[in-house]
Amino acid sequence: MSPAVPVRWYEPWPGSTAVPGPTLLWLHGGGFFRGGLDQPEAHDVARSLAARGVRVATADYRLAPPPGLGVAARRLMPTRARYPAALDDVLAAYDEVGDRSPEGVVVGGASAGACLAAAATLRTIDEGRPPVGAVFAYGFFHARHPRVAQRRHRSRGHRGLSHARWALDATNRNYAGSAAAREERLAFPGGHALTGFPRTLVVTAERDNMRASGDLFATELVGAGVEVRHDVLPGTRHAFLNRPGLAEFAHTVSLVADWSRRGAARPSSRRPSTASPAPSSGTVPAPPEVASS
């Protein structure tokens, strides 16, 4: 069983154009081995969405050890854990968010968080309690990264090396923990059956080695009969949601907010709540958009 998972809540700001709608469970990236609730890709994204009237929850899932530690990881970093620990944490957070979200849940994330969100979506489909939507920003979804066909679409600068296919594949192996686990559908959903996926927004960065996986996954979703909106942002690079001052940050947040609120949440087959919503703690007094549980 997953231990208690920290979940941070962002309520729509007073004066925002909030309308009743699903809660977005948003997951940060970081290659499965770094990142947290305070990084801009989590906190600033959630705060900006709340300012636009979207209720957001972020989850502090367990991280894998950094690549290269091998068998020494358990001794050197005993709190770290490989697959499926992060997925278990996301599913535990999904339970909490679902119990407190009568309009349903949209599951989303950026980079590795998008992969975890896709895996959680498949698991909840299997269990008959799927989200009402999914949102993926510059995610990667395949055990082995597809090749970027056009040179002008490849990562530049330091990410040309750190995001080379061999490095990305090594990160995937590190997260999965074994060759067999890496091929599992809930480790990397790309290339597996996607039947039953909810309506999905896919945003990819134009100049990003991980774009090939995001583009391919969007195509696979369409092939599975899923309603998909797929936007490629011109001139953008990976992890732009970690830079709140960029125009593409504001554009994507607005896009996600509008997409998440579009239409009424569809009825969900998720299990009914058996308890009253737990009271939030640690509320920030002004503006009152953040709480932790």
Structure commentary:
It is a single chain. With 293 residues, the protein is of the alpha/beta class. An 8-stranded mixed sheet has the order 7-6-5-4-2-3-1-8, with helices on both faces. The chain starts with 6 loop residues before the first strand and ends with a strand. 31% of the residues lie in helices and 15% in strands.
The rough form would be described as globular
The amount of beta strand, in percent, is 15-25%
Cα distance spanning the termini: 18 Å
Structural category is alpha/beta
Summed over residues and divided by their number, the pLDDT gives a mean of 85
Q: Helix fraction?
A: 25-40%
Report the total helices: 9
What series of H and E elements makes up the topology? EEHEHHEHEHHHEHEHE
Number of strands: 8
Name the features.
8 strands, globular, 15% strand, 9 helices, 31% helix, alpha/beta, 8-stranded mixed beta sheet, 293 residues
